[in-house]
Design goal:
Structural class: alpha+beta
């Protein structure tokens, strides 16, 4: 738990400094005693000890007895020390209070790879893997720390910068979880020591003053919107006005996938001594520890040159491997290249992080997990699925299995949240019966001949030509999948393999993403799973019955029994008005997706997106606002998804009035869209359907 707060958090009074000061005091006392008893030797000891003690006391006194100044706290009585203060405050000051990079277990850090693997090192350095966790400095933070103050839910937050150190100021009541109550006007000013994320948003962490435990700043910096927003407004979870600093979340959870060789190191008295080999996902996360690899190549290097020697060693090793010579067998390079592994073991390297899984041995969370690239993931992880085995494990852990499954899976067990792509791949026939792996489509290092910019490559880390049908035609003969198969223009989005077989039914990072479980559209199956089908995510203006008829006619897929609304109303209407928060988020995203806008005539969608501007879930509002501004005529709509409700209602009214003016009724009309031929909304029917919205609490565990 955090220390007591009274306008500040005391992170300056450290055990190390106290012991140091006490040691000098004792030494000085001993010197005085020796001088008193044995003047000859005592003079020498006192002559050395006394000036050193004075120097130490001068340097440590402000740290020991003015810890508020070290923390840079602000309150009614205190003034922060910084650039103009007597105590220089740098990021190094807070090293004892944050997780550390410590090379152990054979890990040597990515910098050791640069000497021989310059190109791969630089492409990794340009990737978002590297920046998933960073020490917070003025250069690494994305957020605006220029003295900006923002307010949310009646609370003020201020972000500042002094030299190379960034600070956050927030109500003390948020930070203090125990002890006497604090005044509503009291604030805590805390140093930002670490950040997580850099692709879409960035989260900031400050020290709690107890071991290496971190707390989370309740605001995140949203890259796309270039602004500060509450963290709770970036994730699909039940609406709340609470602010939480999530004490220990990074030490316990985030580090597991956002660092290399993580060790949370939680003691019995709940003190973290968290250490990792490297912040971010580095070379060794995918290739394994590098110490023995480097030693192997150092020992094979001689005057004739490294390349020639390596070749001869490889030949010798291969020869002696056949004869069973154990000494030379040990000379095999221990590093792992996932491209050299079979498709299952290769994909499991990615699955170490990109899976909904848990440690088989909980102790490994504390002392470092045992998975290494090249090993089977099942040796150290339990891959969650909607089955009795996972349900039993969750019950042993004291978790509600039903709530857990709903936060991760669609009802048929298909993964529905981002960051868990291996679960989807592992349940795909292309993986189970074929040889598809993560590297079938993705390139962790930018390849030679890739004409894309580094930023474009880094966005999804796709290999060359993999943003299209070639990803599938590596194995499938394109001649077998012409218009007779797709029933769409081959040049159009309806003939792209992944739009039908990898639709955007996964949610995460405030958008819809492609499912990584290869499947085919089936209205009946998708309805049972309570999941939108691929066809209607493009054809939002058509009812389920229309899709079911097409699939039955084209592919012989049995048409399910549908109710009246499913037979007669457009899926975009039903899903946006009646769906749960997860469905509403996905359909709102698709209403701004160009292929769906073109296939479904986007003008009618604006009315439904306007309705979602006041949705109770923050992220649904954000996605709806972004999609609405993608429709012609709404680009300049003044809308803030985290503004007060009265301001959101004002923006919604403006959007509805603009739709009334722009919609002429000549296109995209009909009762299935609740729009009459004159372009007027069938308002009562609209309100009746909206009143049937699925308001169950939704928490998607991305």
């Amino acid at each position: 738990m955090p220390p007591e707060v009274s306008g500040s958090v005391d992170v300056g009074m450290t055990d190390a400094l106290m012991i140091f000061s006490i040691a000098w005091t004792v030494a000085f006392a001993v010197g005085v005693l020796v001088y008193w008893k044995h003047r000859q030797w005592g003079k020498l000891g006192l002559f050395i000890l006394f000036p050193l003690f004075c120097l130490t006391l001068v340097g440590l006194w402000p740290l020991l007895f003015n810890a508020d100044d070290l923390a840079g706290t602000s309150s009614a009585e205190g003034t922060p020390r910084g650039e103009n203060g007597t105590v220089p405050i740098t990021p190094a000051v807070f090293e004892p209070f944050r997780p550390l990079e410590v090379t152990s277990d054979g890990y040597v850090k990515a910098s050791a790879c640069l000497e021989c693997h310059e190109q791969n090192y630089h492409s990794w350095h340009d990737s978002y893997h590297r920046t998933m966790t960073q020490l917070a400095t003025a250069d690494s933070v994305m957020g605006d720390f220029s003295g900006k103050t923002v307010s949310f839910d009646g609370r003020d937050y201020r972000m500042t910068q002094e030299g190379d150190l960034c600070w956050v100021e927030l109500p003390a009541s948020i930070v203090q979880s125990e002890g006497p109550p604090v005044s509503p006007n009291e604030t805590s000013r805390l140093p930002v020591v670490m950040s997580t994320g850099s692709h879409h948003m960035q989260v900031y962490w400050f020290p709690m003053g107890k071991g290496r435990m971190l707390g989370q700043f309740p605001l995140v910096y949203l890259k796309e919107a270039d602004r500060w927003v509450p963290r709770k407004s970036c994730f699909l979870e039940p609406p709340t006005s609470d602010a939480d600093i999530e004490i220990g979340r990074w030490n316990n959870t985030c580090l597991q996938c956002h660092t290399t060789n993580p060790k949370q190191k939680l003691s019995r008295d709940f003190v973290f001594d968290t250490k990792v080999a490297e912040f971010g996902i580095s070379c060794e996360a995918c290739h394994g520890p590098g110490e023995k690899h480097i030693a192997f190549h150092r020992t094979t290097q001689d005057q004739s040159g490294l390349v020639e020697r390596q070749s001869s060693v490889s030949d010798t090793v291969a020869s002696d491997a056949e004869s069973g010579n154990p000494d030379l067998q040990n000379q095999v390079d221990p590093i792992v290249n996932p491209r050299d592994l079979d498709h299952r073991l290769s994909s499991q390297v990615c699955g170490n992080c990109h899976a909904m899984a848990t440690h088989l041995d909980p102790k490994t969370r504390n002392d470092g997990h045992t998975f290494r690239p090249g090993k089977s993931l099942s040796d150290s992880r339990h891959l969650y699925r909607c089955n009795p085995s996972s349900e039993s494990l969750l019950k042993k852990q004291g978790q509600d299995s039903k709530a857990f499954f709903e936060s991760v899976f669609w009802k048929d067990g298909m993964i529905r949240v981002s960051g868990r792509e291996f679960n989807g791949l592992a349940d795909s026939p292309c993986y189970q019966k074929g040889t598809m792996s993560c590297l079938s489509c993705h390139a962790v290092h930018k390849e030679d001949g890739d004409s894309r910019s580094t930023a474009d490559w880094a966005n999804d880390q796709l290999a060359i030509d993999m943003d299209g049908d070639h990803a599938c035609t590596q194995c499938h003969d394109a001649a077998d999948y012409g218009e007779r198969h797709t029933h769409h223009d081959l040049a159009g989005s309806g003939s792209r393999c992944y739009n039908c077989h990898m639709p955007h039914t996964t949610y995460g990072l405030m958008k819809a993403m492609r499912s990584h479980q290869i499947s085919s559209p089936d209205v009946g199956r998708d309805q049972q799973a309570e999941r939108p089908n691929a066809c209607n995510l493009c054809h939002l203006d058509q009812p389920l019955s229309w899709t079911a008829d097409k699939l039955e006619s084209w592919y012989g897929i049995e048409k399910p029994i549908l109710d009246e609304a499913e037979s007669n109303l457009a899926t975009g209407v039903l899903w946006s008005l009646q769906g749960d928060a997860g469905i509403r988020a996905i359909v709102a995203w698709h209403m701004g997706w160009k292929p769906a806008m073109q296939a479904s005539q986007a003008d009618w969608m604006a009315r439904y997106l306007a309705h979602l501007l006041t949705d109770p879930y923050d992220v649904v509002r954000y996605i709806a606002g972004r999609s609405l501004k993608a429709i012609q005529g709404f680009e300049d709509l003044d809308y803030d998804y985290v503004a007060a409700i009265k301001d959101r209602l004002t923006a919604q009214t403006a959007a509805v009035m603009r739709w009334d003016e722009l919609h002429d009724g000549d296109s995209s009309t009909g009762n299935h869209l609740l729009v009459d031929p004159e372009g007027e909304l069938l308002l009562q029917k609209f309100r009746d359907l909206a009143g049937q919205r699925n308001d169950r609490d939704m928490y998607l565990n991305e």
